[in-house]
Design brief:
Layout (H helix, E strand, L loop, with lengths): L1 H35 L4 H16 L1 E9 L5 E9 L2 H4 L3 E3 L3 H9 L13 H11 L2 E7 L4 E10 L7 H60 L9 H18 L3 E8 L2 H8 L1 H17 L6 E6 L2 E7 L3 H14 L4 E3 L2 E3 L3 E8 L6 H17 L4 E3 L6 H18 L3 E10 L5 E12 L3 E3 L1 H10 L3 H23 L3 E5 L2 H5 L3 H8 L3 H4 L2 E6 L7 H13 L3 E7 L6 H4 L6 E4 L1 H7 L3 H16 L3 E4 L5 H9 L4 E2 L10 H11 L1
Parallel strand pairs: 11-12, 14-16, 16-17, 17-18, 18-19, 19-20, 20-21
Antiparallel strand pairs: 1-2, 1-5, 2-3, 4-5, 6-8, 6-11, 7-8, 9-10, 13-14, 13-21, 14-15
This protein binds ligand C2E and magnesium ion (2 copies).
Amino acid sequence: MFVDKQKSSNIIDLNRSLQQKETEIELLQKTFTEIGSELDIEKVFQIVSERARELINAETLLIPLLDSNCETYTYRGGAGKNAEEIVGESLPLDFGVCGWVWKHKKPWWQGMMNELSGDEKNRWEQEAGNMILVPLQGKRHFLGGIAGLNKRGGGSFGKKDLSLLQLFASIVSVAIENAMAVKSMEDSHALNEDYRYKLENLNKQLIESSKELEYLSLYDSVTALPNRSLFYDRLSRDIVEARNDGSTIGVLLIDIDSFKDINDTLGHDLGDSLLNKIARRFDDGININETLARLGGDEFTVILPGHDQAQVLRRAEKLIDSLKPAFILEKNSIVVSASIGVAVYPDHGENIGNLLSHADFAMYEAKSSSLKICVYNPDSDHLAQGHLAMVADVRTAMKEKQFELHYQPKVSAVSGKVVSAEALGRWCCTERGNVPPNIFINVLEQNGLIDEYTYWAIETALAQAKDWQQRYGEMRIAVNLSPQTLMHPGFKEKFDQIVKTENDGKLLTFEITENLFLSEFDRLAEVLEHICALGVELSIDDYGTGYSSLSRLRRLPVSELKIDQTFIKEMVDNKDDQVLVHSTIELAHNLGLNVVAEGVENEAALALLRKLGCDTIQGFLISQPLPVEKFNAFIEAQS
Ligand code: C2E
Ligand code: MG
Ligand code: MG
């Protein structure tokens, strides 16, 4: 009977324990399905805390997690008594039971007491019975733990609680780790967004300020019309187009009559506002593909693409007519008249310089006669007569290969060694003697011969560089490139034919002046990228004489900057030039550019340039441009 009683009590116990197991399993399963699909970290903490609390029947359940600094831990989740107050609190890692668990990577529960040494036992005894803490070990790193405080209904957490909580922890740790990874991804995404937002804003500011700079460098502040620089740029572009499609361009030079008197009478402020009003009248009749610019003072100019002489004259008359109604300025009624000189591309000139000077000539003819408008007439321009003979001679020189290249060494400011050479065109004409390159290059440019000349110069320089490579090792030769050639549609193709390998490219530098086609910047950049991809280096020549800013130039693949000789020459005695040279060197270095000083003629300049950190020196102090044999002798003497 007793045995039966015992048996049935055992069976009841077994049933109870089975039931409890079932409940536990149910609870575990429920938890896993709940958190399995949950990626919101706060919700995961909430579910884990509540279910774990139920599982081990704890008064309070807390989830302490290691902070990313690995020096503190924070209670990230919790459920039950006082949990709300504790969650969010951070403590140092070596503090309390948590610290013990981090250190030993073992669970904490009452049974641990037997494993402790005497000192530790005394230290932890108070907390031992009413606390259980199992580690949360993620797949990638140690996360923290799950802690139960005070068994509900009294008593201590036992071995069974420990196994259950360990089982629970081992499974939820994956969910916690995933949710934490998602959270940190979200945080860094938010951070990225934040950075992106800030960057976008900075970029916007940069674009705005560079637009402002660009505006200031291209537009006249009094009339808001394009200035001389933009006028040159537009006319160069229009000439390239007209040359390609065989069309004509009208160029008008307008000078306001007696403006000086008006200015003197009204004062400069009213004078400026009159100029502005005149600009508005002129501008009314200007179409989108045409350019009205203020060259300075009382001089305006108009570019009329696709206009022949008769059309240009009609437009000039309209401009004169637009001035007829009196201008009212502070109750003064002012009547203004103007004189216009006309030049038409290509009849009166094939380049900007020619067209402008001929329009100017015509304008003075108009002023000195009773006519308001005059078209350029070569018969009355005696200078032009001589010019035609010059053009004929330059053509012959090109045909008969009379041009030569001389080479001027560029030396290291530090070692004095020759690092490269600049090829400079020379023409010794039988009738005229030595003609300076500035003159014949100009004639070549005006008469459509510059491309042929430049290809010859590149080929000649490249052959020379190969010869020097054999004799003295690799050394680049710099060739001066006319902007027209660079912008010529066939340039890329022709250049590819000349430069066959990257090794060829590595022997060349192209020097280009900074006043390149400003409005064709993108097209230019594309051509320059192509050249650079072939190993060629780009150098900005005569820096300081033009209108471009370094910030603009840095958008091109440039590697060298040559400070114009006018600054170098004056530098020793002129503080302003010294400051300009100094700041240019600094800025260029900040942009990673090599700096060359041109026109170094004396030791004082050299010493100063060295002090300012200039990299390369070129000038008569080192050597004049030399014919090949003399250049060879120079190098050999040096080594
Ligand atoms: P650049 O490219 O700025 O060349 C430097 C000029 O300064 C050269 O004048 C050179 O002889 C001169 N120079 C060098 N060191 C000194 C110095 O210490 N003192 C003085 N006073 N002058 C010095 P160059 O040879 O008369 O050439 C003048 C310009 O003609 C060149 O200026 C370049 O823009 C152009 N040029 C020359 N050859 C060519 C060419 O083959 N193609 C093109 N497109 N232009 C060329
Ligand atoms: Mg040069
Ligand atoms: Mg130069």
